[in-house]
Write a structure and sequence with these properties.
Order of helices and strands: EHEHHHEHEHEEEHEH
Oligomer: single chain
Shape: globular
Number of helices: 8
Strand order of the largest sheet: 2-3-1-4-8
Largest sheet: 5 strands, parallel
Number of strands: 8
Length: 216
């Protein structure tokens, strides 16, 4: 049976597993995973004007401006592959961005999944996380080399323990309000992210199916 597209927002603090789970769900549903953090980090690697602007902000654990991020998402959602659905990872992170997303989708229904993980677990995960210096994908520190392209694994600058704590503070201060913004909607679901990846994926699949049932 052909997978049904979905318009989904993946919420959760840094280290919750949004990237891993978002990529898995996007693949299962045949839609693109749109990760604003990946887009910004690629811009930083290539040294573009956006990258130079964003790089200084990312390295301190702060958030890039609403205007820049909204423009990135607007351009990406306008591409042909996102017309039928998408999985958003890292957007929205502020109420301004959430309001902008509602306008961008033109009233289309959004499924919203919030992945919940205790802070000590998040700090441990991020301290051990590595990314590929070649393709930019995430991998565990003990992988040796990138399992996707064989590139060298390096620590993200914003995964330094001090910066991680700052990122979690920023999330608590600025982004948790987004959870409350969406919690009132019938298509919002919370999932326990402190499980194995397969268990989290199964819970997310069930949560998405449940949320979709709200408008059948």
């Amino acid at each position: 049976m052909k997978a049904r597209p979905v318009r989904l927002v993946m919420l959760g603090p840094p280290g919750a597993g949004k990237g891993t789970q978002g990529e898995r769900l996007a693949r299962d549903r045949g839609v693109p995973r749109i990760a604003t953090g990946d887009i910004l980090r690629e811009a930083v690697r290539t040294g573009s004007a956006l990258g130079q602007l964003a790089g200084r902000v990312i390295e301190t654990g702060q958030l890039v401006s609403d205007e820049v991020v909204i423009d990135i998402v607007r351009e990406r959602l306008a591409r042909e592959d996102a017309r039928g659905g998408f999985v958003l990872d890292g957007f929205p992170r502020t109420l301004v961005q959430a309001d902008a997303l509602d306008a961008l989708v033109g009233g289309a229904r959004l499924v919203v999944i919030d992945i919940e993980v205790p802070e000590p677990t998040l700090i441990q995960r991020l301290a051990l996380r590595r990314i590929c210096s070649r393709c930019g994908r995430t991998a565990p520190a003990d992988a040796g080399r990138c399992p996707f392209c064989g590139g060298d694994l390096v620590q993200r600058r914003d995964d330094d323990v001090a910066v991680v704590r700052e990122r979690l503070q920023v999330y608590a201060r600025d982004t948790r309000v987004i959870v409350e913004f969406y919690r009132r909607r019938p298509t919002f679901r919370s999932v326990d992210g402190d499980q194995t990846p397969d268990a989290v994926a199964a819970d997310i699949a069930a949560a998405v199916a449940s949320a979709e049932g709200e408008w059948r």
